[in-house]
Amino acid sequence: MRVRNAAGLALVKIGKASERPLISALVDQDDVIREAAVQCLGRMGASVIADLVTLLKSKDARASEGAAQALKLIGAPAVKALIKQLMGGNKEAEKLAGEVLAAIGSPAVPGLVEALTTR
């Protein structure tokens, strides 16, 4: 476990160059690898938000669920992109975006109220 944690921290520190491999790992057959990718992506923050929001539309449930979990870890910085996704026209992605926003909680309230009044 220590090796996996150390590798995850190194990937987060590497940053941009590790984003694609981590996003690809969200569809790995191994639950442990997928969860490690979620944790790393969640620590990367704003740089991966757009890619993760796009993955909410994936037909692969592992990818969309992993993206949702990572976005929950990112939290408030993801709110604006998630609000935009709520109006994206893809029902499953809209549902996941709503779940993530609910998990983020109070930082999402102003954007949700605005979306409610403009939709």
Top keywords for this entry?
single chain; 119 residues; mainly alpha
Structural category: mainly alpha
Strand content: under 5%
Termini separation comes to 46 Å
Unreliable stretches = none
Tally of strands: 0
Percentage of residues assigned to helices:
over 70%
> Whole-number average pLDDT?
90
Computed over alpha carbons, the radius of gyration is 14 Å
Total of domains = 1
How would you portray this structure in words?
The structure is a single chain. This protein has helices at 2-14, 16-25, 31-44, 49-55, 61-74, 79-86, 91-104, 109-118. The chain has one domain (2-118). The chain is mainly alpha-helical and 119 residues long. It is built from 8 helices and no strands.
Secondary structure elements and pairings:
Elements: H1 2-14, H2 16-25, H3 31-44, H4 49-55, H5 61-74, H6 79-86, H7 91-104, H8 109-118
Helix pairs in contact: 1-3, 2-3, 3-5, 4-5, 5-7, 6-7
Q: Can you give me a brief rundown of this structure?
A:
The protein has 119 residues and is mostly helical. It has one domain (2-118).
